[in-house]
Amino acid sequence: MRTDPGFDPDRYSEDPQDGRSHIRSQVLSDFYSLLHHDVAGQGEPSSETWEFVKGRKYQKLSARELEELDRLASVMSEAPGVGQLLELYLRSPTLRLEAAEQDPYCFLFSTN
């Protein structure tokens, strides 16, 4: 998405998110799901989780956040194992999600 000059982000928009923001939230949702944390949970996600995954606009991300998302996309494209996902999470401050770390079913729970 960030390296292809012909990429059309509008093809991926889903109201109320623009295409780049929607792709970001989907990658994060997949990442946490692979760590056994359902960002939606059994009911509605917490407001903190919702804001982090769905509410953040791509245009407002810092250079560090973009770098960590690029690293995440690269790792995710290689069918990573749980160990690789945990290592990436622990090295990436902007990907931290308190709800995931407190979820007893999540692989992150035992790292605290």
Question: In a few lines, what is going on in this structure?
Answer:
By secondary structure, the protein is mainly alpha-helical.
- What is the string of SSEs from the N terminus onward? HHHHH
Helix content: 40-55%
Q: Quick check: average pLDDT?
A: 87
Number of helices: 5
**Largest β sheet strand count, sense and barrel closure:** none
Q: How large a portion of the residues is in β-strands, by DSSP E?
A: under 5%
Structural class: mainly alpha
Q: What's the N-to-C terminus distance?
A: 33 Å
Q: Kindly state the number of beta strands.
A: 0
The gross shape turns out to be: globular
Low-confidence stretches: none
Rg result: 14 Å
Our count of domains comes out at: 1
If you had to describe this structure to a student in words, what would you say it looks like?
It is a single chain. This protein is mainly alpha-helical and 112 residues long. The N and C termini lie far apart (33 Å). The protein has 5 helices and no strands. It has helices at residues 19-34, 47-55, 63-76, 82-91, 98-101. The longest helix is centred in the first third of the chain and has 16 residues, at 19-34. The model has no long low-confidence stretch (mean pLDDT 87). It has one domain (17-111). The chain is globular.
